[in-house]
């Protein structure tokens, strides 16, 4: 187990993901809350930070429990922190050092730099620079602009680097992490999906015993993998509920339900479409729609779970990015959209929570899913928002609008699949706009709906860019939509990036 102390860098999660890619388990903890079981961690990595070490409100934790006692790798701010408080000197650099640089002056015999050729590209992102190394510092590498790009401390297993090994642009970054963790700290690379499944199934058996677990399936990757893991562990003690809110993709409810049954899951499909659509009738405000959907979902789920006598646990597909305590640099962030499914279900359900995926990143969830034999197509599905088509139908929702949006969406998504484009896109869908426009079909004037298509690339949904889909493809899809979907006479393609736009229109 590796400890990553977070000083608030935007790259901290990336460090964790790189370490996990080496099949090494790690956890992120905020710098001001050292975990109590410190002895369980074999090595420590200090992250970067948006702060300057010289600033008074910058993170200045006491590392006496760690320094010299465990192998330590300090990245960027971490490297400056070690220098600043231990006889070195950190000062503003004349130029802001940002972007690609190349390592030189390597001490070839160093284990730390083994397999990393001189000239290797690294990624810099800092405005302070280390002018003088700390006491007992030994210089290992420099770049053209940064003399003290990598150093170690004599007599300790402490290493420090000014650049970011975790970003893709540092071409030997993963090698460097492996050198530190495997060669220097002697950590074993046993964090594999197979081992995870084996360990998790065993601990779920112990945790849940002979009690019953209720779990809400959404058709998405996380809840599915969580269910299959629980199913491996406790079989028929698992009761899955899959709710149709009437705002799913075309035929999704039937198809996915069928797939779940095929996987041997004990699942009940509940068609509550009418209940959701009634509650939503006439409501135009997006946040209001989200709240209503959240509330009705809880009601339906509660009714259903009461039918399962004596259930003691609520299973959830929560994953690691939702669990990591984030360090707030700019104060609490404003609510842009209230995602109803963050935070789980309210207390009144009074069930104990079991979350088999809470320590996994999304890519690890997919790898675990593959190990469990889940259909690759299901594992590769685009994300789909909890409120579904409700936030893609701008304004109020009617059954007719749901039908139009489903038809258009199905043509678009199937088209992406048929043209081999689906896996190149992170998320895609159709948006029904609350405007009519004039068209002409045959000799007739039409006055019908306009739909927008949206396809984005992203890694986590936080930032996104529109995908440059081929014109021929857009042409074909547009024709197909207008010819086949009654009520639509115009198709547009959304070419906005996030920020400043968002992925969904509501
Ligand atoms: P935005 O529109 O904020 O979307 O750029 C980012 C990602 O979040 C999804 N999204 C939601 N997911 N409940 C959800 O479960 C919601 O209310 C919600 N709103 C947006 C969106 O589909 C994208 O993947």
Automatic annotation (TrEMBL):
Residues 191-381 form the GMPS ATP-PPase domain. PROSITE patterns: GATASE_TYPE_1 (PS51273), GMPS_ATP_PPASE (PS51553). One of its GO terms (molecular function) is GMP synthase activity. Gene3D superfamilies: 3.30.300.10, 3.40.50.880, HUPs. ATP binds at residues 218-224. GO terms for cellular component: cytosol. It comes from the Bacteria. Homodimer. This is GMP synthase [glutamine-hydrolyzing]. Signal peptide: none annotated. Catalyzes the synthesis of GMP from XMP. Keywords: ATP-binding, Glutamine amidotransferase, GMP biosynthesis, Ligase, Nucleotide-binding, Purine biosynthesis. Pathway: Purine metabolism; GMP biosynthesis; GMP from XMP (L-Gln route): step 1/1. It catalyses: XMP + L-glutamine + ATP + H2O = GMP + L-glutamate + AMP + diphosphate + 2 H(+). It comes from Imtechella halotolerans K1. Its EC number is 6.3.5.2. Transmembrane segments: none annotated. The active site is at 76 (nucleophile), 164, 166.
């Amino acid at each position: 187990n590796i400890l990553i102390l977070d000083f608030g860098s935007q790259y901290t999660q990336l460090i964790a993901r790189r370490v996990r890619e080496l099949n090494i388990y790690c956890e992120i903890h905020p710098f001001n809350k050292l975990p109590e079981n410190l002895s369980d961690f074999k090595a420590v990595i200090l992250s970067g930070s948006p702060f300057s070490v010289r600033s008074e409100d910058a993170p200045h934790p006491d590392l006496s429990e760690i320094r010299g006692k465990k192998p330590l790798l300090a990245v960027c701010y971490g490297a400056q922190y070690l220098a600043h408080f231990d006889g070195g000197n950190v000062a503003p650099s004349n130029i802001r050092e940002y972007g690609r640089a190349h390592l030189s002056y390597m001490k070839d015999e160093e284990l730390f730099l083994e397999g990393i050729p001189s000239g290797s590209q690294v990624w810099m992102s800092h405005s302070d620079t280390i002018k003088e190394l700390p006491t007992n510092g030994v210089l290992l590498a420099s770049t053209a602009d940064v003399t003290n790009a990598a150093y170690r401390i004599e007599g300790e297993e402490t290493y420090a680097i000014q650049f970011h090994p975790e970003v893709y642009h540092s071409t030997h970054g993963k090698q460097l992490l492996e050198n530190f963790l495997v060669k220097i700290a002697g950590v074993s690379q046993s964090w594999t999906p197979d081992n995870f499944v084996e360990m998790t199934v065993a601990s779920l058996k112990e945790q849940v015993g002979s009690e019953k677990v209720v779990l809400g399936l959404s058709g998405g990757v996380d809840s599915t993998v969580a269910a299959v893991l629980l199913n491996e562990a406790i079989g028929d003690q698992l009761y899955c509920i899959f709710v149709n809110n009437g705002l799913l993709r075309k035929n999704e409810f039937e198809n996915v339900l069928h797939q779940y049954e095929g996987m041997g899951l004990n699942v009940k499909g509940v068609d509550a479409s009418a209940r959701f659509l009634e509650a939503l009738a006439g409501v135009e405000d997006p946040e209001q729609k989200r709240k209503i959907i959240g509330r009705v979902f809880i009601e339906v789920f509660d009714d259903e779970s009461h039918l399962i006598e004596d259930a003691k646990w609520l299973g959830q597909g929560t994953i690691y990015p939702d669990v990591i305590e984030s360090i707030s640099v700019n104060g609490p962030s404003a609510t842009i959209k209230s995602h109803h499914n963050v935070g789980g279900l309210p207390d009144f359900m009074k069930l104990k929570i079991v979350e088999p995926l809470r320590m996994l990143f999304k890519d690890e969830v997919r790898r675990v899913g593959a190990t469990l034999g889940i259909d690759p197509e299901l594992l590769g599905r685009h994300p789909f928002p909890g409120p579904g088509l409700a936030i893609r139908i701008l304004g109020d929702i009617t059954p007719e609008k749901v039908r139009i949006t489903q038809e258009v969406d199905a043509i678009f998504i199937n088209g992406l699949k048929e043209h081999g484009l689906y896996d190149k896109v992170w998320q895609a869908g159709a948006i029904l706009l609350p405007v009519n426009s004039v068209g002409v079909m045959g000799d007739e004037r039409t006055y019908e709906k306009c739909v927008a298509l949206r396809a984005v690339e992203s890694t986590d949904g936080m930032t996104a860019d529109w995908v440059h889909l081929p014109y021929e493809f857009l042409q074909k899809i547009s024709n197909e939509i207008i010819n086949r979907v009654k009520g639509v006479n115009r198709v547009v393609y959304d070419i906005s990036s996030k920020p400043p736009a968002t992925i969904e229109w509501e």
